[in-house]
């Protein structure tokens, strides 16, 4: 049967990665089979390039990837930025000050190829403390971090691709409402559950989860990155297949010729998808690839 899809776009956390942030042997085999069948495999993740190094190595990724929520398209082999959707410096400054007014430090993610480091942490004049999960993440991922009291100290304003805040779900829900009312459609915003270690999850207040609020340029999304990669490769969008689980995957799932929701996906992803696969702890990516390759999907 002729192959229906030429490009496979995969999210990482909650999708390709299992709950312990590993790529299962079955998923690795399925990706190899997809490539052998002639499909281009593209990772599109909220992580920065350095933060997904282990996952990319596990699947021997050579094709371009969409990282930082799709705001950067990068070559994982040469570690080069191929394209980016940067935030306007004036918007970065105004949004950072607004986020700081909620007494939270702000993670200002850079294009590391241009800036020479990954995150500028703006902690405010009051030196707001970073939460333990953010510190743990920086250490685990070996990211390069610089610190500043105010956004005015940013020496690479033109290289910002994302703003982020990590905090309790109830607090971030209020912050997202404030940011949406203040900046409207000048930016794209997402709020969703953070990746946390079990020991951190067990210390959260009852009924609370740790969430991340992210602010991007208006035209930045995972689907923007996938469209750029598909266009560069000459792949029609109708021949793109995408798999994801979280709110920031919705544009990609809705836009692809075949959008597939993980079994553990949030409801908005399931609603946007044409097909549903198994959970990420059940090799849902492999389950989906097998059905795509045999022509069932």
SS element count, helices: 12
Outline the biggest β-sheet. Answer: 6 strands, mixed
Under the CATH scheme, the architecture of the largest domain is 3-Layer(aba) Sandwich
Report the span from N to C terminus: 12 Å
Structural class label: alpha/beta
CATH class of the largest domain: Alpha Beta
**What is the percentage of strand-forming residues?**
15-25%
Shape: globular
Order of helices and strands: EHHEHEEEHEHEHEEHEHEHEHEHEH
Query: Can you tell me the residue ranges where pLDDT is under 50 for at least 5 consecutive residues?
Result: none
Give the full name of the CATH homologous superfamily of the largest domain.
HAD superfamily/HAD-like
Structural description of this entry:
The chain is of the alpha/beta class. The chain has two domains: 152 residues, HAD superfamily/HAD-like (Rossmann fold); 129 residues, Hypothetical Protein, Haloacid Dehalogenase-like Hydrolase, Chain: A, domain 2. The chain has twelve helices and 14 strands. It has a six-stranded mixed beta sheet, with helices on both faces. It has a five-stranded parallel beta sheet with strand order 2-1-12-13-14, with helices on both faces. α2 packs parallel to α12. The longest helix is centred in the middle third of the chain and has 15 residues. 47% of the residues are buried.
């Amino acid at each position: 049967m002729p192959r229906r899809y030429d490009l496979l776009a995969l999210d990482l956390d909650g999708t390709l990665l299992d709950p312990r942030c590993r790529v299962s042997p079955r998923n690795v085999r399925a990706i190899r089979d997809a490539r052998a069948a002639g499909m281009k495999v593209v990772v599109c993740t909220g992580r920065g390039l350095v933060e997904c190094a282990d996952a990319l190595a596990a699947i021997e990724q050579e094709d371009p990837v969409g990282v930082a929520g799709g705001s950067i398209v990068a070559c994982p082999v040469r570690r080069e930025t191929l394209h980016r959707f940067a935030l306007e410096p004036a918007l970065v400054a105004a949004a950072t000050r607004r986020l700081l007014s909620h007494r939270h430090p702000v993670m200002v993610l850079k294009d590391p190829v241009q800036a020479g480091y990954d995150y500028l942490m703006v902690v405010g004049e009051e030196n707001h403390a970073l939460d333990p999960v953010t510190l743990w993440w920086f250490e685990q991922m070996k990211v390069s971090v610089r610190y500043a009291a105010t956004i005015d100290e940013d020496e690479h304003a033109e290289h910002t691709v994302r703003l982020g805040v990590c905090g309790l779900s109830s607090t971030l829900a209020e912050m997202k409402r404030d940011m949406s009312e203040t900046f409207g459609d000048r930016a794209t915003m997402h709020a969703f559950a953070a990746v946390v270690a079990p020991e951190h999850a067990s210390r959260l207040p009852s009924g609370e989860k740790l969430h991340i609020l992210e602010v991007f340029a208006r035209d930045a999304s995972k689907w923007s990155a996938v469209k750029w990669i598909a266009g560069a490769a000459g792949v029609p969008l109708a021949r793109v297949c995408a798999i994801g689980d979280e709110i920031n995957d919705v544009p990609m799932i809705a836009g692809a010729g075949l959008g597939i929701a993980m079994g553990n996906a949030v409801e908005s992803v399931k609603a946007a998808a044409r097909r549903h696969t198994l959970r990420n702890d059940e090799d849902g990516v492999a389950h989906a690839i097998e059905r795509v390759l045999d022509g069932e999907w």
